[in-house]
Amino acid sequence: QLSGKWFLVGMATHCSYLAEHSHQLEATTVTMTVLDGQSLAISTFRKLDRMCWEIRQHYLPAQAPGRFLLKGEGDCSKVDVVVGEADPSSFIILYYQKGHSISVKLYGRSSLVNDAIVDKFEQRARAVGLSEDVTYYFPTYGFCDSADEFHILDGEL
């Protein structure tokens, strides 16, 4: 159900980098592929310095349906990913938790989603202590569809 192309619409996070660079947000798409019926292969396409990059990640299944684990280098860099709410035909809200830090992302099947979906996303963000001050919306134009072989990052964040 999660397979296919998604557009990153919004993100709520206390990430200081995003706060300082929010004026430089780039249109971002994600392609999700369900592997072996459980884990997810994620390809994120975005621009960096006007070049299209692909970032490949692997979300491993966790203890319950709708929960995944993104492993980084070392034990401290694992990220728990939880599907908060989804309508596979239009949107998905994902929670990312690393230690005590939590972020919420809204993805849509198109770069624009209706106001009711945005309201759900903002309510979910507020419920975990993320106000509109730390909620960012991404551009709806200028997407990358691919990256050349020299602009692929394989691995974990």
Key traits:
Lipocalin; 10 strands; 157 residues; mainly beta
Quick take:
This protein is mainly β and 157 residues long. Helix content is 12%, strand content 46%.
Report on the architecture of this protein.
The protein has an eight-stranded antiparallel beta barrel with strand order 1-2-3-4-5-6-7-8. A hairpin with a 2-residue loop joins strand 3 and strand 4 (51-61). Helices cover 12% and strands 46% of the residues. The radius of gyration is 15 Å and the shape is globular. The chain has one domain (4-144): Calycin beta-barrel core domain (Lipocalin, Beta Barrel). The protein starts with a strand and ends with a strand. It is built from two helices and ten strands. The chain has helices at residues 16-21, 115-127; strands at 4-12, 28-35, 39-48, 51-61, 67-70, 79-87, 91-98, 101-108, 135-137, 152-154. It is mainly beta.
Compute the gyration radius: what is it?
15 Å
- Topology-level CATH name: Lipocalin
CATH class equals Mainly Beta
Strand order of the largest sheet: 1-2-3-4-5-6-7-8
Q: Which structural category do the helix and sheet elements fall into?
A: mainly beta
CATH superfamily assignment? Calycin beta-barrel core domain
Distance between the termini: 24 Å
Tell me the number of strands.
10
Given the structure, what is the number of helices? Answer: 2
The overall average pLDDT, rounded, is 90
User: Largest beta sheet, briefly?
Assistant: 8 strands, antiparallel, barrel
**Apparent shape:** globular
The CATH architecture category equals Beta Barrel
Order of helices and strands: EHEEEEEEEHEE
Uncertain regions: pLDDT < 50 for 5+ in a row?
none
How many separate domains?
1
- Estimate percent helicity: 10-25%
Strand content: over 45%
